[in-house]
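Chapter review: from sequence to fold.
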Amino acid sequence: MLHIWREVDRYRGGDAEAGIETRHAFSFSGFYDPSNTRFGLLVACNEERLAPGAGFAEHPHADVEIVSWVIEGELTHEDSAGRRAVVRPGDVQRLSAGRGIRHVERNAGSEPLRFVQMWLVPGVFGGEAEYEVVRGIADGTPYGLARADAVMHVRRLGAGERTAVPDAPWVYVHVVRGGLRLDDELLEAGDAARITDAKRLEAAGEVSGTEVLIWEMHAEPSYG
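The token string follows.
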């Protein structure tokens, strides 16, 4: 089964006066739809747009895997463990919150920042918080989450270039830029496909410079 979720259907949130614009794919913050709370292990896929100087003040997380992908600009991360990093396009940032951590996310640069942030439920709760940035991840490189039965695939496609969609019980395809042809459907930037029981599917770049994030998930959340 394949369900397309268009960019125009995302819930608009954020704080315009603070220079923050957010586009939610799932129930989040002040928006709640009981029929749209998660897909597989994925419980959030937010596109964040931060003006220069804007950001999210220090706030806590626990028992969640947070993966961020910068589209343009620079994302500055600081956390209660004393870490500080600047994440740029092509980098993958992961924060495994474990039993608890506090962090700040902001645009400390002079240009607009746009990034996609995805939250997944881990298979095991608790433990120490972990953080890493993988710099300049190559096309086609799988990025696995050790604490969740999930893998993210980064694909950059030219016009007509094809890629296999992983065979998995839950597959989430998010178009970062460009356009993607998937099972007779055209997905454009900000669109996503939610696929259950994916088998032998292929996708093709519609235009040059297409960039896609594909989540391969083999479990649903378990709360003990």
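Two observations follow directly from the output. The CA atoms of residues 68 and 133 lie 9 Å apart. The mean pLDDT is 96.
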